[in-house]
Amino acid sequence: MTIYTKTGDKGKTSLFDSRRVYKDDMRVEAYGTIDELGASLGLAKNYVEDEEMYDFIHGIQNKLFTVASILATEDPEKVRHHIVEKDIDELEKIIDIYMGRIEDPNCFILNGFGKKAGHLHVSRTVCRRAERRIITLSGHVEIDPLVIKYVNRLSDTLYSMARYSEDREVCVEY
């Protein structure tokens, strides 16, 4: 099986519903950043020793395929999988778990005291960029509000995991 089709050689790609767009299209930028987030989480989970957190990350990576498929499909009738409120509720439960385990959740911290925390913070920032790309796209096409809500809550989830994973917390001194 070859993975090259040569159909993108002139700078275009196909969306999930077969519409051809330029590779720098806002829609491609949005789902491409979600793809980058999934890859970043794949790296981060290699440093996580906590099986529960590993499983949470693994589940999030799967859910990101749903997000990407929604963003990569122009015709809403052709979207096969959706984000639902239960998905957001699950993220909120994860946030509550990890924020509940932090000693002083009210100070700003310097990021990355430890590899797992560092990688999770990078994933968090990629998530925030994905959210910005989705918001930009939503200014031009209709985006399911639950997708926006999910990605917003996901960045909070990644923050809570990263914060919990710090080998030590160093509060920012102004």
Explain what this protein looks like in three dimensions.
By secondary structure, the chain is mainly alpha-helical. Helices cover 57% and strands 3% of the residues. It has helices spanning 26-44, 51-71, 85-99, 115-138, 145-165, and strands spanning 12-14, 20-22. It has a two-stranded antiparallel sheet with strand order 1-2. It is elongated and about 50 Å long.
A few lines on this structure:
This protein is mainly alpha-helical. Helix content is 57%, strand content 3%. It is elongated and about 50 Å long.
Key features?
single chain; 174 residues; mainly alpha; two-stranded antiparallel sheet; 5 helices
